[in-house]
Amino acid sequence: MDERLVAAFAMIEATGWLAPIVFILFHIARQFLFIPASLICIAGGILFGSVFGTIYSLIGLTLLTAAFYFACKTFPKISQKLLLLKEKWFGRRALTVGQISILRLIPFVHYQLLNLCLMEREPEFHKFMRASILTNLPLAFFYTVFGQFISRFSPTMLVIILLALMLLFYTLREKIVVMHWKEFFDKPAKGNSL
Q1: Residue 36 in 3-state DSSP?
Q2: pLDDT tens per residue, range 17-61
Q3: Is residue 188 part of a domain?
Q4: Which of 36, 44, 51, 142 is the most buried if burial means most Cβ atoms within 10 Å?
Protein backbone atom coordinates (compact mmCIF):
# COMPACT_ATOMS: atom_id res chain seq x y z
CA MET A 1 0.00 0.00 0.00
CA ASP A 2 0.97 3.59 -0.50
CA GLU A 3 2.69 5.32 2.45
CA ARG A 4 0.03 8.05 2.48
CA LEU A 5 -2.69 5.41 2.77
CA VAL A 6 -0.88 3.64 5.62
CA ALA A 7 -0.43 6.99 7.41
CA ALA A 8 -4.14 7.78 6.96
CA PHE A 9 -5.15 4.42 8.45
CA ALA A 10 -2.74 4.90 11.35
CA MET A 11 -4.38 8.27 11.99
CA ILE A 12 -7.85 6.70 11.87
CA GLU A 13 -6.78 4.00 14.31
CA ALA A 14 -5.33 6.63 16.69
CA THR A 15 -8.55 8.68 16.86
CA GLY A 16 -10.08 6.25 19.35
CA TRP A 17 -13.86 6.38 19.57
CA LEU A 18 -14.00 8.78 16.61
CA ALA A 19 -12.34 6.18 14.38
CA PRO A 20 -15.61 4.89 12.83
CA ILE A 21 -16.71 8.44 11.94
CA VAL A 22 -13.31 9.30 10.48
CA PHE A 23 -13.33 6.02 8.55
CA ILE A 24 -16.79 6.72 7.10
CA LEU A 25 -15.72 10.23 6.10
CA PHE A 26 -12.57 8.76 4.55
CA HIS A 27 -14.83 6.63 2.34
CA ILE A 28 -16.33 9.84 0.99
CA ALA A 29 -12.94 11.57 0.57
CA ARG A 30 -11.25 8.58 -1.07
CA GLN A 31 -12.61 9.41 -4.52
CA PHE A 32 -10.61 12.66 -4.51
CA LEU A 33 -7.47 10.73 -3.52
CA PHE A 34 -8.02 8.18 -6.32
CA ILE A 35 -8.06 5.25 -3.90
CA PRO A 36 -10.22 2.26 -4.92
CA ALA A 37 -13.19 1.46 -2.68
CA SER A 38 -11.94 -2.11 -2.32
CA LEU A 39 -8.76 -0.95 -0.53
CA ILE A 40 -10.78 1.08 1.96
CA CYS A 41 -13.05 -1.91 2.64
CA ILE A 42 -10.02 -4.16 3.18
CA ALA A 43 -8.64 -1.60 5.65
CA GLY A 44 -12.02 -1.50 7.41
CA GLY A 45 -11.77 -5.24 8.01
CA ILE A 46 -8.28 -4.85 9.43
CA LEU A 47 -9.17 -1.86 11.64
CA PHE A 48 -12.64 -2.84 12.90
CA GLY A 49 -13.06 -6.54 12.18
CA SER A 50 -15.40 -8.18 9.71
CA VAL A 51 -18.77 -7.17 11.14
CA PHE A 52 -18.11 -3.54 12.06
CA GLY A 53 -15.82 -3.04 9.06
CA THR A 54 -18.62 -4.15 6.75
CA ILE A 55 -21.18 -1.92 8.50
CA TYR A 56 -18.93 1.15 8.45
CA SER A 57 -17.93 0.55 4.83
CA LEU A 58 -21.58 0.15 3.83
CA ILE A 59 -22.48 3.42 5.58
CA GLY A 60 -19.57 5.24 3.93
CA LEU A 61 -20.33 3.87 0.46
CA THR A 62 -24.04 4.69 0.83
CA LEU A 63 -23.28 8.27 1.87
CA LEU A 64 -20.89 8.58 -1.07
CA THR A 65 -23.61 7.34 -3.42
CA ALA A 66 -26.14 9.82 -1.98
CA ALA A 67 -23.62 12.65 -2.45
CA PHE A 68 -23.12 11.54 -6.06
CA TYR A 69 -26.89 11.57 -6.66
CA PHE A 70 -27.24 15.15 -5.46
CA ALA A 71 -24.08 16.24 -7.31
CA CYS A 72 -25.51 14.89 -10.58
CA LYS A 73 -28.83 16.62 -9.99
CA THR A 74 -27.08 19.89 -9.11
CA PHE A 75 -24.36 19.75 -11.80
CA PRO A 76 -25.72 17.94 -14.89
CA LYS A 77 -22.36 18.22 -16.70
CA ILE A 78 -20.97 15.57 -14.34
CA SER A 79 -23.57 13.05 -15.47
CA GLN A 80 -23.13 14.04 -19.14
CA LYS A 81 -19.41 13.25 -18.99
CA LEU A 82 -20.08 9.95 -17.24
CA LEU A 83 -22.78 9.10 -19.81
CA LEU A 84 -20.17 9.38 -22.57
CA LEU A 85 -17.92 7.02 -20.62
CA LYS A 86 -20.84 4.63 -20.03
CA GLU A 87 -21.69 4.50 -23.73
CA LYS A 88 -18.05 3.79 -24.50
CA TRP A 89 -17.84 0.91 -22.00
CA PHE A 90 -21.35 -0.57 -21.92
CA GLY A 91 -23.16 0.87 -24.93
CA ARG A 92 -26.66 2.26 -24.59
CA ARG A 93 -28.21 -0.66 -22.77
CA ALA A 94 -29.17 -0.28 -19.12
CA LEU A 95 -27.44 -2.52 -16.60
CA THR A 96 -29.48 -4.45 -14.06
CA VAL A 97 -28.99 -4.01 -10.32
CA GLY A 98 -27.42 -7.49 -10.19
CA GLN A 99 -24.95 -6.61 -12.93
CA ILE A 100 -23.99 -3.41 -11.11
CA SER A 101 -23.42 -5.45 -7.93
CA ILE A 102 -21.07 -7.76 -9.79
CA LEU A 103 -19.22 -4.90 -11.48
CA ARG A 104 -18.69 -3.22 -8.10
CA LEU A 105 -16.66 -6.28 -7.07
CA ILE A 106 -14.18 -5.68 -9.91
CA PRO A 107 -11.69 -3.10 -8.57
CA PHE A 108 -10.81 -1.37 -11.86
CA VAL A 109 -14.42 -0.52 -12.86
CA HIS A 110 -15.19 3.16 -12.18
CA TYR A 111 -17.34 3.42 -9.02
CA GLN A 112 -19.14 6.64 -9.99
CA LEU A 113 -19.86 5.27 -13.47
CA LEU A 114 -21.71 2.40 -11.82
CA ASN A 115 -23.59 4.94 -9.69
CA LEU A 116 -24.70 6.64 -12.90
CA CYS A 117 -25.87 3.29 -14.32
CA LEU A 118 -27.81 2.75 -11.09
CA MET A 119 -29.29 6.23 -11.35
CA GLU A 120 -30.49 5.46 -14.89
CA ARG A 121 -32.14 2.29 -13.62
CA GLU A 122 -33.70 3.90 -10.52
CA PRO A 123 -34.13 7.68 -11.03
CA GLU A 124 -36.20 8.28 -7.84
CA PHE A 125 -34.01 8.99 -4.80
CA HIS A 126 -35.49 6.46 -2.35
CA LYS A 127 -35.41 3.65 -4.93
CA PHE A 128 -31.90 4.69 -5.95
CA MET A 129 -30.71 4.53 -2.33
CA ARG A 130 -32.32 1.13 -1.77
CA ALA A 131 -30.62 -0.20 -4.91
CA SER A 132 -27.40 1.47 -3.79
CA ILE A 133 -27.42 -0.42 -0.51
CA LEU A 134 -28.10 -3.68 -2.39
CA THR A 135 -25.20 -3.08 -4.78
CA ASN A 136 -22.77 -1.81 -2.12
CA LEU A 137 -23.41 -4.67 0.32
CA PRO A 138 -21.53 -7.33 -1.70
CA LEU A 139 -18.60 -4.92 -2.19
CA ALA A 140 -18.38 -4.02 1.50
CA PHE A 141 -18.84 -7.61 2.68
CA PHE A 142 -16.57 -9.31 0.16
CA TYR A 143 -13.59 -7.00 0.50
CA THR A 144 -13.90 -6.57 4.26
CA VAL A 145 -14.21 -10.26 5.10
CA PHE A 146 -12.15 -11.83 2.35
CA GLY A 147 -9.79 -8.94 1.67
CA GLN A 148 -6.94 -10.40 3.65
CA PHE A 149 -7.14 -13.65 1.70
CA ILE A 150 -7.42 -12.00 -1.72
CA SER A 151 -3.93 -10.56 -1.38
CA ARG A 152 -2.61 -14.12 -0.97
CA PHE A 153 -4.29 -15.50 -4.10
CA SER A 154 -2.15 -16.57 -7.02
CA PRO A 155 -2.54 -14.76 -10.35
CA THR A 156 -4.27 -17.87 -11.73
CA MET A 157 -6.84 -17.78 -8.94
CA LEU A 158 -7.46 -14.06 -9.54
CA VAL A 159 -8.07 -14.74 -13.26
CA ILE A 160 -10.50 -17.54 -12.36
CA ILE A 161 -12.37 -15.21 -9.98
CA LEU A 162 -12.57 -12.46 -12.64
CA LEU A 163 -13.82 -14.97 -15.24
CA ALA A 164 -16.45 -16.21 -12.78
CA LEU A 165 -17.57 -12.62 -12.13
CA MET A 166 -17.80 -11.95 -15.89
CA LEU A 167 -19.89 -15.11 -16.34
CA LEU A 168 -22.15 -14.04 -13.48
CA PHE A 169 -22.39 -10.54 -15.03
CA TYR A 170 -23.50 -12.10 -18.34
CA THR A 171 -26.01 -14.36 -16.59
CA LEU A 172 -27.62 -11.46 -14.70
CA ARG A 173 -28.19 -9.36 -17.83
CA GLU A 174 -31.64 -8.18 -18.81
CA LYS A 175 -32.99 -10.48 -21.50
CA ILE A 176 -34.70 -8.56 -24.28
CA VAL A 177 -35.77 -9.84 -27.68
CA VAL A 178 -35.50 -7.23 -30.43
CA MET A 179 -37.50 -7.89 -33.56
CA HIS A 180 -37.00 -5.55 -36.47
CA TRP A 181 -39.98 -4.13 -38.33
CA LYS A 182 -39.04 -5.86 -41.55
CA GLU A 183 -38.77 -9.29 -39.87
CA PHE A 184 -42.11 -8.89 -38.13
CA PHE A 185 -44.03 -7.91 -41.25
CA ASP A 186 -42.09 -10.11 -43.65
CA LYS A 187 -44.25 -11.40 -46.52
CA PRO A 188 -44.84 -15.15 -46.47
CA ALA A 189 -42.98 -17.11 -49.14
CA LYS A 190 -44.87 -18.27 -52.26
CA GLY A 191 -46.77 -21.45 -51.66
CA ASN A 192 -47.13 -20.66 -47.92
CA SER A 193 -50.56 -19.10 -47.84
CA LEU A 194 -52.36 -18.56 -44.58
Answers
A1: coil
A2: 788 888 888 888 887 777 888 888 888 887 888 888 899 999 999
A3: no
A4: 44
